[in-house]
Each structure stands twice: as C-alpha cells, then as structure tokens.
Amino acid sequence: MSDTTTGSAGTEGNDSYGHKPFKRSRSHFADRITADGRHGWPVEAGRYRLVVSRACPWASRALVSRRLLGLEDALSLAVADPIQDDRSWRFTLDPDGKDPVLGIHHLSEAYDAREHGYPGGVSVPAVVDVPSGKLVTNDYQQLTLDLATEWTALHRPGAPDLYPEPLRAEIDEVMEGVYRDVNNGVYKAGFASSQQEYDEAYEALFARLDQVSARLADRRYLVGDTITEADIRLFTTLVRFDPVYHGHFKCNRNKLTEDPVLWAYARDLYQTPGFGDTVDFDHIKRHYYQVHTGINPTGIVPLGPDLSGWTTPHHREQLGGRPFGDGTPPGPVPPGEQAPPAATF
C-alpha cells in the first residue's frame, strides 16, 4: 500500500489509478533476507523490523505469517497509523509520533535512507534493517514466502509448513489466479476509470470467487489438508470484502456472508489463532473510506456491517483437515500487539 496520490485520492499497494487503467506496479526494493545471506541480508534474530498497516491486505499477509510461524521475538513489529499524510505511512500511534525502535516519524525516512530521492510510493509491508535504518524490501509477494522457507531456524517449535515443497506448484497456480482476479481484482474494479474496465474486473472477480467456492465446498483448505500460503492470501481479501470492497469498490454482486461456503471458510480461518487476532476492522474501514477521497470524497466511514458473525460456529471441521499439520497453534498474542475483536464493532 503506497502513498502515491492522483489528485486528492490516496492509493494503496503500489497502485496507480486516475484516468488510466488501474495497474499495480512492481516492488522497487526486492532484496531478499535469506538463511545464507546471498543477497547481503542474512536472517538474524532482532536485526530487522517489519512495518505494517493493519488496514492493508498485503501487509496483513505478513502479520498472519509472522504469528503462525512464531517469529514475533525474532522480527519486531511496527504498526503505522491507518490514515496517511502527504509523507505516507506515519507512526502517530506511538508516543511522540515516533517509532520507538527505528526512531523515525514516517516510513519514508527508511526509504530515503536506502535510496535518497526515490520517486516511487512508500508501501507496506516493509522490512527495515534496524542498525542502518535502511529499507531492505517492500516485496510483498516474496516476503511471506521467505518467512516460511528462509527463516526456518527461527520458527517456533511446532510451526506449520506454510509452503510445503511437494505442493508448491499447485499452491502457486491457485495463488496466481486468486491474486489476479481477487486480491488485485477488487482494486481493478474499485479504481476503474471506465465502465468496460470495471465490468471486466467485476466479472473476473466473481467468476474466480465462484470457482474458489466450488473448490472449498468439500475441502477445508485450498491446497492439501493444512493451512498454506494460499489460504493466507485469500483470507486477507475475504476479511475486507463486506466492510470495504462490496460497497466502496462496487464489488456488489453479493456479500461474503451470502456465499455459505466462503463465509464459513473465512470464519474458520478468522477463528484460527494467527488470523483473526491480527485483524483490526476499525483500521481497515477508516483507511479505505478516509484515504480514498477520489472514491469517497466525503470521508464518511459507514457504521456497518454487523461484524459479530465472525465468531459464530462454522462447522468446517467436519471436512477434516489439520490446520497446523503436524504442528501446533501459535501462542498468545504478544503484549501490545493485540487487535480488537470483531465483536466490538
């Protein structure tokens, strides 16, 4: 999610929109943090800081992965204010408006430390090297895969395998379609600048959701019988669907709650430790409705929808499956990282 603007409207996730067809730009800083340090950034406990917005679906992937893998002590967390200013993501949720570890007021300062005068957007998730204060990566597609495969020495005992090697080809295939038509598809519909562009994105979105719903009708998870990266990536869009995408982005053929399979699947994941405990519906709603002034010029944040249903029984356990495979659930959310439960909204 980026601070790039077109007129008065903020954009997200390295987005570009306005009078041109919506296009998501590639991550400019694509360095990788690896076990052998072959890109110059070795995995090292305590060296890096993950910067997120709880509003952002791309950053939420990293939040979920970090929790499931038990990397909280190894990779510290900075949470940005859901409302950006003209310098983008800011740390106004912290005392004195400054991140207590990085000592900066805006994430853009870490970008500037890495590449002075960088002309692109300042996006999350971002990983910053604490000793130097420099941005390491904002590659949201690769980041979670590396957390699952390169950070294994720092995983908690009982951490699940979120990207099992025998299933990677199938996971990649599922994720590609979900990314194109769902994760990115809601944005293509919401930021469409012509009726044809919107119609095409809308049709592709719901065709893919129908396909995914059929796939999940008799299986608990997208690939295999455990939670994988594919489930994380679908979840972060589904959890925002009714509060934001249905109305704000005009993805309104039906609500998530009106698809029995997807609604039960999303609730199942939400109630799984590591998923719902990272979600902040207040941040989600305020960001989309107050930052996207080109779509919602009044800045009014809707009071609905009723979110209490997220904690109701889903009965998906009847399909079998083992959420964490041979592993175990993550422990309690660390102090200071708790997100308010859906039932409070």
How would you briefly describe this protein structure?
33% of the residues lie in helices and 7% in strands. It is an alpha+beta fold. The strands form three sheets. It has a four-stranded mixed beta sheet with strand order 6-5-7-8, sandwiched between helices. A two-stranded antiparallel sheet has the order 1-2.
Helix and strand topology:
Elements: E1 5-6, E2 9-10, E3 15-16, E4 23-24, E5 48-52, H1 57-69, E6 76-79, H2 108-114, E7 126-129, E8 134-137, H3 140-149, H4 168-183, H5 185-190, H6 195-215, H7 229-248, H8 260-270, H9 281-291
Parallel strand pairs: 5-6
Antiparallel strand pairs: 1-2, 3-4, 5-7, 7-8
Shape: globular
Lateral strand order in the biggest sheet: 6-5-7-8
Using only C-alpha atoms, the radius of gyration works out to: 19 Å
Could you estimate the helical fraction of the residues in percent? Answer: 25-40%
**How much strand?**
5-15%
First and last CA, distance: 24 Å
Outline the biggest β-sheet: 4 strands, mixed
Can you give a write-up of this model?
The structure is a single chain. Strand 5, helix 1 and strand 6 form a beta-alpha-beta unit. Helix 4 runs antiparallel to helix 6 and helix 7 crosses helix 9. The chain has nine helices and eight strands. With 345 residues, the chain is of the alpha+beta class. The strands form three sheets. Strands 6-5-7-8 form a four-stranded mixed sheet, with helices on both faces. A two-stranded antiparallel sheet has the order 1-2. A two-stranded antiparallel sheet has the order 3-4. The radius of gyration is 19 Å and the shape is globular. Helix content is 33%, strand content 7%.
